[in-house]
Amino acid sequence: MTTRKQPEKSGLAAVVKKGWEAVNAERQKQDALIAIRKEKSAPRFWLKEGEEAEIMFLDQDPCMVWEHKIELNGRWETLICTREFQHCPICEAFPRHKPGLTAYLSIIDTRSYVDRQGTQVKFSKKLFPMKAAMQGIVYDILKEQKSLKYLLCRVKRYSAKSASGGDYLAPIRRIKDPLKVVKSADLLVPFDYEKVFQPLTSEELTAMGIFSAPILGSEDAEEVLGEVKDASSIFDE
Predict the structure, then answer these.
(1) Residues 133, 167: contact at Cβ < 8 Å?
(2) φ, ψ for residue 135 (rounded to 5)?
(3) Those residues with Cβ within 8 angstroms of residue 217's Cβ, 6 or more apart along the chain or in another chain
(4) Does pLDDT of 72 surpass 50?
(5) Which residues of 203-236 are buried (b: 16+ CB within 10 A; e: fewer)?
């Protein structure tokens, strides 16, 4: 007896998943991918035009990366360019968005904000982006001060055309005992740059609707966390 060959599933049938078991499994998968994204990303310091802030450096040996700045779903995202070690899909998909070289240090942003739970957060650890001009400013301060660690500085962005991290930086003073002010030893530990800049997998990126490149952080992180309420320094002695 001849066995009839079963027809192959159509493209739509192969994509569509049925039943609550499939729904719950997919939701758990998406939650896990979101958690991975948060673990691999870090908030990025930025200023609006005319805005200023006081920041405290946590380290002085910068990490440098090539990155793209792309608008996705109404938000500006900073995506790591992988062309130095593998094919970069961002370069291919956005040929006009040439990558730029940015150096990063870890800082404490002293501006306070209120999170979604209504809790006031006094300090936040962020990545401080430095384009060529800011790299020169920071290096001059390092040579003058001998060390950047726990150095409190004033930073300002004068122009909308300036780098989002600011175009002015000046030292104020060194914080002798930052733990007394910050109250959290974890906040004083610089970012693990190898983890922060680790590329996400294609599956992780596809689930988030982003191309195959690692996410560094978004400039509207403050809006996601909550509105900034107080831009004054909390390090007054």
Answers:
(1) yes
(2) -60, -45
(3) 41, 42, 43, 44, 78, 127
(4) yes
(5) ebbebbebbbbbbbbbbebbeeebebeeeeeebe
